[in-house]
Amino acid sequence: MSVGSIGKWLWVALLLVACTPQQEPEEQVRAKRYDLQVPANFPLPEYSAYNPLSEEGVELGRMLFYDKRLSGNNQLSCASCHHQELAFTDGHSSSKRGATGEQLLRHSPGLANMAWMEGLFWDGGSKNLESQAFGPITAPDEMNQNLQELVSELQAVPAYVDKFREVFNDDIKSAYIGRALAQFQRTLVSANSRYDKYMRQEPGGQLSDLELQGLHVVEQKCGSCHTAPLFTDNHYHNNGLDSDFSRDDFERIYQGRFRITHNPADVGKFKTPTLRNILLTAPYMHDGRFKTIEEVLEHYTKGVQQSPTLDAAFKNTATRETGLTLTPSEKKAILAFLETLTDDEFIQDKKFASPFVD
């Protein structure tokens, strides 16, 4: 069965699941199915049964993503911290300020290939894109918006009233805002880097000897966490950034996954970010402490700090030392390979850009 046939079958199945017996047939088919193109070198994503992709839903989500009404002061949109040209990051560390002027405490993660991501935010505080959207929208130190006020603001815009009814056959509700944003973000597929073309044996997919060496080093020494083709394992790891996690201010935000699970084994663990477009997404780590990839590699070879939850990948039981063993030539090769993961088509694709700009 072809990918296209699978996609059509999934759409029909999910549509049937999503529809209730009370719905009229014309309500079930008003929105046009969005054909999400799954790259040949990617696994099939998990589709949302209650929020299937539609062309109108994706377009509505795109409008909302770039609309500053989503912030309490009408000065910030989702795109304010997720710039397309930076693979939907913002180039700042934790010093970026939100709607109230308060300091943000984490680096904005990229938004590529969200249809394949499990667990959102650096600590996995949200399980799906539909609920994730409300975190930054309502957070006092981020967008600081009241959902009832947001609904009222959108209801005052006839274009939004029509669009929500077209997509959801209903008036504007906060839950639909989250669903529309989720639909748009699921279409943010980055899979046309030079590496991808190499893997699919497509034109433009040539890798140099140095880049191929880097690919092999990444597979051998980084692949347990940065697993191809997504270059993340969607899990949480303590990669030795700190040794003391006793600081419990700011809602235990420095304690990583433990903040969500309250499991002592999760102290200091943060989600593995993707390596895709990595040269565009500096600074690095959850708090943006490293400005360059060179600094990141230096950390992994000389800066890994010991703690009870340090990931086994960074422990050498024979020597009791921590970190990875990387030679200067291996570091050079890694840097060369990481350049092949930049997807220029993704950061220039107009269907991901603001609909409010000509």
UniProtKB/TrEMBL annotation:
Cofactor: how bound: Binds 2 heme groups.
SUPFAM superfamilies: Cytochrome c (SSF46626)
Location(s) in or outside the cell: Periplasm
Residue ranges of every copy of the Cytochrome c domain listed in the record: 209-342
Entry comment on modification after translation: Binds 2 heme groups per subunit.
InterPro entries in alphabetical order: Cyt_c-like_dom, Cyt_c-like_dom_sf, Cytochrome_c_Peroxidase/MauG, Di-haem_cyt_c_peroxidsae, MauG/Cytc_peroxidase
GO MF annotation terms: cytochrome-c peroxidase activity; electron transfer activity; heme binding; metal ion binding
Keywords: Heme, Iron, Metal-binding, Oxidoreductase, Periplasm, Peroxidase, Signal
Cofactor(s) required for function per UniProt: heme
Coiled-coil regions listed: none
Chain residues that bind heme c 1: C78, C81, H82
GO cellular component annotations of the record: periplasmic space
Origin: domain of life: Bacteria
Presence of keyword Nucleotide-binding: no
Residue sites binding heme c 2 per the record: C222, C225, H226
Protein name: Cytochrome-c peroxidase
Species of the source: Pontibacter qinzhouensis
